[in-house]
Each structure stands twice: as structure tokens, then as C-alpha cells.
Amino acid sequence: MVVMSTTHTTPTSTLDQFRRALTVAGPLAVLGVAWASTGVRDTMAIANVALVMAVLTVAVATVSWRAGITTSIGAALGLNYFHTEPVHTLRITAQADVVAVLLLASIGIAVSIATALRVRSFAREHTATTAAEHRSLLATASAHDRPVAVVWTEAVQAMCAGMSLVDCRIEPVGSSKLPTIARQRPHTDESTTLVLPDGGAVVAFVDPRSHAQVTLTPKAGMGSIELDRRIVFAFVDQLELALSSVLPPPLKASGAAH
Hints:
This protein is mainly alpha-helical. The chain has 2 domains: 14-120, no CATH class; 162-257, no CATH class. The chain has helices at 14-36, 43-63, 65-83, 95-141, 148-159, 229-242, 250-257; strands at 166-172, 193-196, 201-204, 212-218, 225-228. A 3-stranded antiparallel β-sheet has the order 1-4-3, with no helix packed on it. Strand 3 and strand 4 (212-218) form a beta hairpin. Helix 2 runs parallel beside helix 4 (95-141) and helix 4 (95-141) runs antiparallel to helix 5.
């Protein structure tokens, strides 16, 4: 059986590159602070070191929630390894040190969670506002003759507020264990909304001979997303139509294989 394989590279913005770099640079920075301050051993000095590491962790977490989590873990491990008795081990004997390490980790994780929720809320509000602007433009400009390609693009931008928060790829049918979004709804209600789970889901092409499916996954940090099922299937159907000339003839191929 012959199945189409596609590879697509998405350009990465400078901000995304910076956030990814912080995932490594953040933990290294707090570990460096912990190592550089190993000469101090009294309680107040350790508290000051923990305070400096907490400030670094919070600063990183406000930029990237992923980097914030890795930095908070690195800070807790660094404080534990370099400053709590017995030093240069990951054991802790003093209850106050246990509290300090846990507090340092929890601060970074809490700020990271808050950052993730803030970014998610902003992204959803921004896409909804952008889609509304495109709908308004489409309604006012469509009274005049314009190229179909331009109107089509504007219509997609107006409809797909939620879809702009989703990544997709084409893969062979059955290549993943993600849940399948059924084209026929099991219930007869009038709801047109579906929930795309955080881990993603798949939609098969209409023509079973293509042996291909589209995997839809919410962008990192977006969580589960509510989508209009009509738009989801319209997208998959348009994608199948656009690729119909390059999809292999699987019936002939599978016959030859057998």
C-alpha cells in the first residue's frame, strides 16, 4: 500500500526562539547562582540566595511558562544540592530547608501556570477579535467584483478563529492512537460545536482509498479548544480536494503489493 507522506516546516519567530532558549538558559542561570554562592552557609545567606533565585525564576516564568517550570525545578535542585545540609547531595535533613526548597519550586510553578493561562486567554481573545474584523471587512467589501482567491482567503480568515490555534499534519490512516472525530454525530441535537482535546484528534479523508487522515492538535499551551465542526470538516474536505491530484491510487498500489 502506498501512502502519501508530507513534511512541513513552520517558520519560528525570534520570540519563540528566545523562549526555547530560556528553557535551557533559565535553569543554567539559577544553577550558576547556587554554585557561585556555595561559600555562604548561614541561614540568612541561604535565604538571600533563595531570594535571588526566586527573582530569576519569576522573571523567566513571566516570559515563558515552559522555561519557568524548568527554571523552578533547577532552582529547587540547585538550592538543595549546594546549600542544604548535607551539601552536595539531594537529601535534606532540616525541616526549614525542606520548606525553603518547596517554596522556591512552588513560586516558579505558580507563576508559570499564571503565565500559561494569560497567554492562552490573550491568544483566544486576539483570534476572536481578528476573525470579527475579517467578517466585517468581508461583509462590506463583497458587494464589489473582486478576485475569488482574495474573497476566499478573507472568508477563511473570518471563519477560522479557533482553527488558527490548531496545528495539523497529514499522516497514514491508523498511524496514531488519537481519538477520531466522527463525521456522523452520535446525537441528534443541533449543536455544531466539538471539543478538540489537548492531545489532539484525527479526521479521515472522505475517500477511503486515500488511506490518509489529518491530525489536528491545539498549539502548545492552548489546552482543549472548542471548534465549529462544520469548519473542521470543511477544512479537511478542502485539503483533500486540493491534494486529490497528488494522492496515490492506493487500490492499484495495494493490488500490486499483494
